[in-house]
Design brief:
Length: 661
C-alpha cells in the first residue's frame, strides 16, 4: 500500500506539474503569439509616441519669381508631462526663452495628457537655447517656419498660415497644393521616463508645391506706396487700388489699406484688417458706372457721340423725386454727358435704353456674380432683376446707384472696354511648380465673352479720353501718354434717414493707359475720406501717380517722344555707343531753366526716353542700369550739352523692403 500510495502521489504531482507547465505555455503562447500585436502596441504607447512631421510648405512667388512667402527650417517644442521632473523649475527656465507666460507653461507641464505642444515653430537660435537646458520631458521636432520677406507687401492677396494651415488669401485658397505631405516620427523615453528623443522617422515629409502669381512685386510696391500716402493724407476709412492687364486678365497689384504684417498677423486692432476688400466688400460705384450705361447705349445704337441731350438746367423730377446735377447744364452732346458726368443726361440715356437691355449689359459685364478669381470670400455684389425695380430704379441705376459692385468686378468690366470689348477672366495664379522648380500646372489667359463690338469699344475709348483731357478726369492725366478713364463720387445711404448722405462716400477713378494700346487698367477708391469731396480731386491724382511709375517700369515710351538715332563706334560690339537725340523740345524747370533729371537706377531705355525732350547728345558706357551721370541731377542744362551715362549690369535696385523681381 505504501508503494502504491507513493506512486499515486508522484503521478498526481507530475500531472500537476504537467498541467501547470501546459498552462504557462498556453499563456505564453497567448501573450507572445495571439496578443503580440496588441501588447507591442501597448508597450509602444507607454514608452514612445508617434509625432507628425510637417512638410515644408511650397513657396509663393510673383510673376518674375520674387519670393512673397517662403518656409525656413525651424523646430517645435513639446512635452510629455509625466516625464517632467519639476514643472515649476522647468516653466521658470523655459518662459524667458520661448516668450510664453510662466503660468501658461506650468499648466501645460502638469497636464494629465500624455503629450502637449508648448511652442510651435521656434527659430534655430531659440531651439538651440531650449536644447541646452537638457530638461527631461522636453523635446523638439522639425516643423518649418512660414516667413513673408516683404512684410505688408500684398498681404491681403497672400494671406497667412496658422497652426493648421492657410487661413487667408492664397495661403488658404491653395492650401492643399502648398501644404505637401506630412511625415511621421516616433519619439521615445527610457524606463524611468527621464529622457525623450527622436527614435526613428517612419515617413519622410514631402515638400509642397509652389504657386506663381500674376502679381508683379514692383508694381505692387508702387501701388501700395501711393495708396498708403493717400490713405494717411485723407484719413479715409479704407482705401484700395487694383491694377490689371486687360489683354490677359492678369491681376498685377491689389493694394488695401488698412493693412497688416502676415508675419505677426495677430498684432492687429481688428480682424477687419485681414479682409481683402477688393473682392469681399461691394460698394455703390457712382459715376464710374456710367461707362457701363454708355457701352450698352452705344452698342444698341440708342445714342451716338454727337447726339444732344438737354440738361434741364441741373434738375430732373421722376416719380415725385428731384435728382440734381452737380452743375447746371443746358444742351450737351452724349460725349459731353460723360465728360462732365451729367446726372440728367445719363438718366435720359438710361430711359432711352430701357430696363431690359440695360440689365442684359450689366450682367454681360459681370455684375451680380463672382469673377471667379479664386480668393476666399468673394462677393457677387448686388444687382436686382428688372421685375423687382421701382419707378426710380432705372434713373438711379443710370447714375451707379441701387447696384453694388466689388473693385475687382469694376476693373474687369473696364478691362473689357480697354481690350476691344473682349472680357478676360481675372487671373491671379499663373502656374504651379514642384520642389525642383518644374512647372506642373499652368493657367492660360481665358476670354469669357465679347461684351461689345470692337468699334463700340473704340468709340467709347475716345469719349473716355476726352473725360481726362477736357472733362472731370483731368487730374488723371500722365504727361506723354493718352489716358482714358472716368471719375466717380458716390454718396452712401444714411441708415438713420434712409436717404443718401451729403458726407463724402466712395470717391473713385477707373482708367487705362496708353488709351489706344492699354497696358493696364487701374481702379483707385477712397472710402469716406475726411478732407476730400470729389473723385476727380482725390482718386484721379493717385491713378496718375501709379500709372506714371508703371509705364516707366514696363518700358512703355512716351507717345510724343522723338526718335533716337544710335551711332555706333568701330568694332562688332562697342561698349560705349553714342546716342544722338534727333529732335529737341526742352522742358523747363523753375524760372524757365532746363534741369537735368535724376536717371540713376533706370535702365538705358528709360533713361533715353526721359532725356528725349532735351535734345543734344548722350554718350553711354557699359550696359544695364545707370549708376553715374553727368551733369548731376538738378543741374541747369545748356542747349546742345552732351550728357554722359555710366551703366552697370547689376540687378535693378528696388526700394527698401522690396525683393528684387
Amino acid at each position: 500500500m505504501r508503494v502504491t500510495g507513493l506512486r499515486t502521489r508522484v503521478l498526481l504531482l507530475a500531472a500537476a506539474f504537467v498541467v501547470a507547465f501546459g498552462g504557462v505555455t498556453a499563456r505564453l503562447a497567448q501573450l507572445q503569439i495571439v496578443r503580440h500585436r496588441e501588447l507591442s502596441g501597448l508597450a509602444e504607447r507607454q514608452y514612445s509616441r508617434p509625432v507628425a512631421l510637417q512638410a515644408q510648405r511650397g513657396p509663393i512667388v510673383d510673376r518674375n519669381g520674387t519670393p512673397l512667402a517662403a518656409s525656413s527650417p525651424a523646430e517645435s517644442l513639446f512635452a510629455q508631462p509625466r516625464a517632467v521632473g519639476d514643472p515649476v523649475r522647468v516653466a521658470a527656465r523655459l518662459a524667458p526663452i520661448v516668450k510664453v507666460p510662466e503660468d501658461e507653461l506650468h499648466a501645460a507641464l502638469v497636464s494629465q495628457r500624455p503629450f502637449v505642444w508648448l511652442k510651435r515653430r521656434l527659430p534655430p537660435a531659440v531651439a538651440a537655447s531650449v536644447r541646452a537646458l537638457r530638461e527631461p520631458g522636453l523635446a523638439l521636432v522639425p516643423e518649418p517656419l512660414r516667413l513673408y520677406p516683404n512684410r505688408e507687401l500684398a498681404a491681403h492677396v497672400i494671406g497667412f498660415e496658422g497652426t493648421d494651415g492657410g487661413l487667408e488669401g492664397i495661403e488658404r485658397a491653395w492650401n492643399d497644393t502648398l501644404v505637401g505631405t506630412p511625415g511621421k516620427a516616433v519619439v521615445g523615453r527610457d524606463a524611468l521616463g527621464r529622457e525623450i528623443e527622436m527614435q526613428r522617422v517612419l515617413q519622410t515629409p514631402a515638400a509642397g508645391h509652389g504657386v506663381m502669381l500674376t502679381l508683379d512685386a514692383h508694381i505692387q510696391y508702387v501701388t501700395e506706396r501711393e495708396i498708403d500716402a493717400a490713405f494717411r493724407r485723407t484719413s479715409a476709412r479704407a482705401a484700395m487700388a487694383v491694377v490689371m492687364d486687360p489683354r490677359t486678365g492678369d491681376v498685377l497689384a491689389i493694394a488695401i489699406r488698412p493693412t497688416f504684417n502676415p508675419n505677426t498677423f495677430l498684432d492687429v486692432p481688428s480682424r477687419d484688417h485681414w479682409r481683402n476688400r477688393a473682392v469681399t466688400d461691394p460698394f455703390e460705384p457712382g459715376s464710374t458706372f456710367k461707362v457701363i450705361l454708355a457701352a450698352a447705349a452705344l452698342e444698341e445704337g440708342v445714342v451716338r457721340p454727337d447726339d444732344r441731350f438737354f440738361g434741364e438746367n441741373g434738375a430732373i423730377t421722376i416719380a415725385k423725386t428731384t435728382i440734381h446735377d452737380w452743375k447746371k447744364y443746358g444742351w450737351l452732346t452724349f460725349s459731353e454727358v460723360l465728360q462732365n458726368s451729367s446726372n440728367v443726361g445719363s438718366i435720359k440715356v438710361g430711359q432711352a435704353l430701357g430696363p431690359e437691355r440695360y440689365y442684359r449689359y450689366m450682367t454681360a459685364f459681370g455684375f451680380g456674380r463672382p469673377t471667379g478669381l479664386g480668393l476666399p470670400g468673394e462677393s457677387r455684389g448686388q444687382l436686382r432683376e428688372p421685375p423687382r425695380w421701382s419707378a426710380l430704379s432705372l434713373p438711379t441705376l443710370s447714375l451707379g446707384q441701387e447696384v453694388s459692385v466689388t473693385a475687382l468686378q469694376m476693373v474687369t468690366a473696364f478691362s473689357a472696354v480697354a481690350n476691344g470689348g473682349t472680357m478676360m477672366r481675372p487671373r491671379l495664379v499663373k502656374s504651379v511648380f514642384d520642389a525642383h522648380g518644374r512647372e506642373t500646372r499652368r493657367f492660360e489667359p481665358e476670354a469669357v465673352r465679347q461684351v461689345i463690338a470692337p468699334d463700340t469699344a473704340r468709340t467709347l475709348t475716345r469719349i473716355l479720353i476726352s473725360v481726362v483731357e477736357v472733362g472731370t478726369g483731368h487730374n488723371a492725366a500722365i504727361p506723354g501718354y493718352v489716358v482714358a478713364g472716368k471719375t466717380g463720387t458716390a454718396q452712401k445711404l444714411d441708415p438713420g434717414t434712409h436717404r443718401y448722405s451729403r458726407a463724402p462716400g466712395v470717391l473713385s477713378f477707373v482708367g487705362f493707359a496708353p488709351a489706344e494700346e492699354p497696358r493696364f487698367v487701374i481702379l483707385v477708391m477712397l472710402d469716406e475720406p475726411k478732407n476730400e469731396k470729389w473723385g476727380s480731386e482725390a482718386a484721379a491724382p493717385i491713378f496718375s501717380a501709379i500709372g506714371r511709375e508703371v509705364l516707366r517700369y514696363l518700358d512703355v515710351p512716351p507717345q510724343d517722344a522723338p526718335p533716337l538715332q544710335i551711332v555706333t563706334g568701330p568694332g562688332p560690339e562697342p561698349l560705349a555707343p553714342r546716342v544722338r537725340l534727333v529732335s529737341s523740345s526742352e522742358p523747363a524747370g523753375e524760372g524757365g531753366t532746363t534741369v537735368m533729371p535724376d536717371l540713376r537706377g533706370r535702365p538705358l531705355r528709360q533713361a533715353l526716353a526721359t532725356l528725349a525732350p532735351f535734345g543734344g547728345r548722350v554718350e553711354v558706357s557699359g550696359r544695364g542700369s545707370v549708376v553715374k551721370q553727368t551733369p548731376q541731377p538738378g543741374s541747369t542744362l545748356a542747349p546742345g550739352l552732351t550728357a554722359r551715362l555710366v551703366l552697370t549690369p547689376s540687378p535693378r535696385a528696388l526700394p527698401r523692403g522690396e525683393a528684387n523681381p
